[in-house]
Request: fold
Amino acid sequence: MKQIGREKNPRRLWSPFFAELWVLVFLVEFMKGSLLVAILPVYMGETLGLSAGIIGLAFSLQYFGDNAFRAPAGWIAERLGYRGTMSSALLFTLVAVIMLSVLTEPVWLVVACLLLGLGTSPLWPCVMTGTTEMSGPNNSNGAAMGTLEIASMGGTGMGPLVMNFAIAQYGHSYGMVFMILTGCSIVLLLVSLMLPGRKKSADKGALQRSALVSSDGLTKQKQQLLGGIKETINSLKTKLDVNPLIYPALFLQSFVIGLISPVLTLYARMDLGISPNLYSVFLIAGGGVTVLALIPCGKLVDRLGTEYFLHAGFLLAGITLFFFSAVRSIPLVFVSVALIGLGYALILPAWNTFLAKLIPESERATIWGFFLTLQGSGMVIGPLVSGVLWDRAGHTAPFIISGIVMLLMFGCHLALARNPRRKTVRAE
Reply:
C-alpha cells in the first residue's frame, strides 16, 4: 500500500492526503467525544431511564469493537486500500448514529454502540500507516504525529463543549445533536471517498486470486483468503522483530490514561473542592499545554530523535502524578496538571515515531493495527482497575498507581532504547 495518490513530495506535511487524514481524525474523535462524554450517559440514563448496567455494557462493547478489530482492519487496509476500508467502515458509523437517534430499545442501543466501535476501528491503523508512508526511509515524522494528536485531542475536547451548548440551546432536546452527528457522519464518508485506493499494480497474488475466482469459484477464493491470513500471521512472527518489552509498554502507555480518566472529575470536585467553572479552566490548563507543545516537540523529535523526549516525558509525568496526589493547594494543582500535560506532549509524538521505526514496510497497516489493539486494551482495563482502587484503596490510589506505571514505562524505555529489536539482543 505504498501509493499515496496525489502527493508529489511525500514528506510535505499538509498534502491533500494528510489533510484528509487530519479531518477524519478530528471528526471521528469529535463524534466519539460528543457521544461518550456529553450525550449517551445522560440520554440513556435520564431521558430513556436505562440502568447503569445497560449503559456500561453499551460503552464496553463500543470500546471492544474499536480495539478488538483494529488488527483485522489493518490487514484489510493492506488489501483494499484506504478508500475501500475507511468508507466501508464509516457506513457502520452512519448507521450507528441513525439507530441511536431513532431507536429506544436497549438491545438496539447496545448494538448501535458496537457498530460505532466497529466503524471507527480502522481509523488509527490507516492514519498511522499513511503517516508512516509519508515519513521517508527513516520513519521520522514527529511533526505529523504531533499534528494528528492535536486533531484527536481537539475533536475529543470540542465535541462535548459543542453538544452541551446545543442541548442547552434547544431545551434539552436531542433531535438537533443527533442531526449534527448525522451530518458529521456523512462528511466523514465523503472525505473517506477522497482517500487513495488500492495499489494499481497487481502482484502475483492478486492475479492468482483473480484466476482462482474465475476458474474454480468461491471455494478456492475462500481457501486463498484463509491462506493469505495464515501467511500474514506467519509474516508477523518472522518480520516483527521487536524487543518483547514493547508489548507491555504498549499496554501500560494507555493504561495510565484509563486509570485517571474515570476519577479525575470526581477527585477534582470531591477532594479538591474545585467548582465546575474552575474545573473547565483546570482541563484547559492541562490540555492547552499539551496541544501548544505537541508541534514543537514533534519537530524536535524529527531533529534530535525520540530517546531523550521519551525519557524526559515518562519521568516528568510519573513524578508529577505523585505530586498531584499529595497537593491540595489550587495553584500547585494547576502547576502539576500543566507539567503532566507537558509530559504527554513530550511522549505522544516521540512514542508514535519510535513505534514507526520498528515496523517493517511490508504489512505496515496490519502491524499498526496489532500495536494499536494492544495499546487500546489499556483504555479498556484501566477504568475497571481505577474504580476498584477508588473504592477500596482511597481516592488518591489511582493517581499513585499511575505514577508508578509511568516510572515503569521509564524503565521499559531505558531497556528498549538500548535494544529495540530481538536480533540486537541475540547478536550480542
Remarks:
- The mean pLDDT is 79.
- Residues 251 and 374 are 6 Å apart (CA to CA).
- DSSP finds 17 helices and no strands in the chain.
